[in-house]
Amino acid sequence: MNRSEALTLLNEYVKNDKMIAHCLASEAVMRAMAKRLGEDEEKWGLAGLLHDLDVEFTAHDMELHAMETVRILREKGIDEDILEAIMLHNEDAAHGQKRTQKFHHALAAGETITGLITATALVYPDKNIQSVKPKSITKRMKEKAFAASVNRENIMECELIGIPLPEFAALALDAMKELK
Description:
Blueprint: H1 3-13, H2 17-37, H3 41-50, H4 67-75, H5 80-88, H6 102-122, H7 134-141, H8 152-156, H9 165-177
Helix pairs in contact: 1-3, 2-3, 2-6, 2-9, 3-5, 4-5, 5-6, 6-9, 7-9
């Protein structure tokens, strides 16, 4: 599946503009991580773009979320390693399976940090992501009450793939800034 086909599929299943923006941000972060780690940017980008395909019709049911995406994408012939990473970005639905590969950790960390970056931008006076500094993101990581629904443990999986948090925050922020 190429990016154009993936975007069509995303827009078929996801109607909420904020969710589409999250998927586009996740794609950008995944592509940046793939480039940094010498991995396949197209494959990692597709995983980021499509990981939340089912979020609206599973009604955020964490026992189902990702499993429907995997089913839909399997019918489209998507590579099994992409499907596995997508399934494991939500370990609650993975029936006891755990993230073990670089690709798994990257998707969990990459899609999660987008929420922290967006929340950080919203507390800036201009609410513009272009104003956000990487240091603000790492500072907000320590504030558990800030963006409390953002799973900091998932973000910290960046270190399991060899990217220290300060570098990861800068890489993800730069990738998201390119979208604006």
